[in-house]
Design goal:
Elements: H1 19-32, E1 44-50, E2 62-67, E3 73-80, H2 81-87, E4 91-96, E5 103-108, H3 113-118, E6 125-126, E7 130-134, H4 139-146, E8 148-152, H5 167-170, H6 185-192, H7 196-206, E9 212-214, E10 217-219, H8 232-246, E11 250-260, E12 263-274, E13 279-289, H9 304-321, E14 325-326, E15 328-335, H10 343-354, E16 358-365, E17 381-385, H11 392-411, E18 419-423, H12 433-437, H13 439-445, E19 454-459, H14 482-500, E20 502-503
Parallel strand pairs: 13-15, 13-16, 16-19, 17-18
Antiparallel strand pairs: 1-3, 1-4, 2-3, 5-7, 5-8, 6-7, 9-10, 11-12, 12-15, 14-20, 17-19
Length: about 500
């Protein structure tokens, strides 16, 4: 696929103005401190704003919160310069904002990607970890090819204004609040039913090592790429749909469509459901992206770790949980378009919000099968990611999910295989993030609602430990750590079961 890249804007003009006037404008430009800045105090701008103590202390609309390359937490705000000055915050203007403009936040996953992107993309801001660029449809394919994970900056405000929500509601833990954790015999049986043989078999099928049956035909899923419409990704969604249906689980397709160039990009998610018995309107969501991406010109994209692994976790959980009853409803959501800025996950989250569905917990499984540690005598690590502590409201909502996960790992024996770590870095380039983005909108509508607490279950993803085969034709089952993978599936299943509240 070829891309037309925007030319860089030319800066600087000739002038015969007096030296004093030139110096005045030069000083003004330095003060504004942005590319494409505007000195008009009433002009909307996109700005980096330093977070003082908590995100709630910023009385301005925040549309993203990030940690830069130095792990300094900051917010992206759209406001006028006058509003920024009146708020008394420390800020840096990134861009003059025109209403309707969308921005891509791209997080570097492969070392050197930011440097390579600087040669071909108009970068508005580089924080040492992320780059920010204006949205163009072709960049949603180019940037992942360069080694980035990407998402669109939220189009709605993500922060809770202190004056807008009572402190009790703002700090309330979600409806899944757990004051104490007790071992459950049914959950123990569910966890014991997860086998490494089943995990490998499902992964083999999804990543093209074994053929799958779709519409009566045996095919090989050599790719699950969203942009290859009508081919592999459609086969993959049909395969997952058929697997859920064969389990006797209620299942449906959830269509989505986004503007793409002069047309639209259309695809579908797969949604399975086990209906809750006593509180079915309280919903626990397990979500994983089905699609793949790779630089490989032959279209070979096995995506065994990224992210057949997460999808296998959902399939295994569904296959076992169907034999049990829960107070709450459990949903299994397989998305597409995740690699192209979370298209499918965003569409699903927005649909749930528009229907005001009471989602009490979201568990996102994305890359759970690789470990750099291969020595059986050395125990690897694994992470569950939630929002930053400085995002006080969001962190308080996510923490019970993460703590439940840690309790499951330590109670049911997975701690013998890996050490689970709560990582509150707020990384947002996967399918949990669209739910985070809608928290403030939900709380404004109903300050006592759960409003989408979410956590990302992932292998140990710190620098130097990332799967070097991701986004390549070599992301295959043979490069995965199957005992580690299986143990994480057990932990995710156990967490979902506890959150859903098993009932006799």
């Amino acid at each position: 696929m070829k891309f037309t890249l925007a030319e860089r804007p030319a800066y600087g003009t000739k002038s015969s103005m007096a030296v004093l006037l030139i110096l005045f404008y030069f000083t003004l430009l330095l003060y504004v401190g942005c590319s494409g800045g505007n000195s008009n105090g009433n002009q909307l701008v996109l700005a980096r704003v330093e977070v003082p103590d908590y995100l709630e202390d910023i009385h301005l609309p925040v549309y993203a919160d990030l940690e830069d390359g130095q792990e300094i937490y900051y917010a992206l705000v759209i406001a006028t310069k006058e509003e920024l000055d009146q708020a008394g915050v420390t800020y840096r203007i990134i861009d003059s904002y025109i209403p309707g403009t969308r921005y891509i936040i791209a997080q570097e996953e492969i070392e050197g990607a930011r440097k390579e992107a600087a040669n071909v993309v108009d970068i508005l801001y580089d924080d040492g970890e992320h780059i920010i660029v204006r949205f163009k449809a072709d960049l949603t394919e180019l940037l992942p090819d360069l080694g980035f994970d990407i998402k669109l900056m939220s189009k709605t405000q993500i922060n809770v204004m202190q004056d807008g929500v009572s402190s009790s509601a703002k700090l309330a833990l979600s409806a899944n609040s757990i004051s104490s954790f007790e071992k459950n015999s049914d959950v123990e049986k569910m966890i014991a039913a997860v086998t490494q043989t089943d995990i490998k078999d499902w992964t083999d099928h999804l990543s093209g090592e074994k053929q799958v049956e779709v519409n009566g035909n045996l095919i090989t899923l050599t790719s699950r790429h969203t942009y290859q419409q009508g081919t592999q990704v459609q086969n993959a969604t049909q395969y997952v749909y058929d697997q859920m249906k064969a389990m006797g689980i209620g299942v449906s397709f959830s269509e989505w469509s986004v503007a793409y160039g002069e047309g639209t990009l259309d695809n579908r998610n797969v949604v399975g459901e086990i209906k809750g018995k006593t509180t079915p309107n309280e919903i626990v969501v397990l979500i994983a992206h089905l699609d793949t991406i790779s630089k490989n010109e032959n279209g070979i994209e096995p995506g065994a770790d990224d992210n057949a692994s997460g999808c296998v976790g959902l399939l295994a959980a569904a296959d076992i949980m169907r034999y049990y009853s829960f107070n709450r409803t459990v949903r299994f959501v397989f998305t597409t378009g995740e690699e192209q800025s979370l298209y499918g996950g965003t569409a699903y989250a927005e649909k749930m919000d528009s229907e005001e569905q009471n989602i009490v917990a979201v568990l996102n499984l994305d890359m759970i099968g690789y470990s750099k540690i291969t020595d059986p005598a050395v125990k690897p690590k694994q992470q569950i990611k939630i929002r930053n502590q400085k995002n006080k409201t969001g962190h308080a909502k996510d923490l019970p999910i993460a703590q439940t996960y840690i309790d499951v790992v330590n109670t049911y024996g997975m701690h013998q295989t890996f050490d689970a770590i709560i990582e509150d870095d707020g990384e947002s380039t996967s399918d949990h993030a669209p739910f985070w983005d809608l928290m403030a909108t939900c709380l404004k509508r109903n300050p006592t609602a759960s409003c989408y607490p979410a956590a990302w279950i992932i292998e140990y993803a710190e620098e130097g430990y990332l799967n070097p085969k991701m986004h390549s034709a070599e992301d295959r089952v043979s490069n995965m750590n199957l005992p580690y993978f299986t143990a994480i599936v057990k932990a995710a299943l156990g967490t979902a079961a506890h959150l859903a509240q098993p009932t006799r």
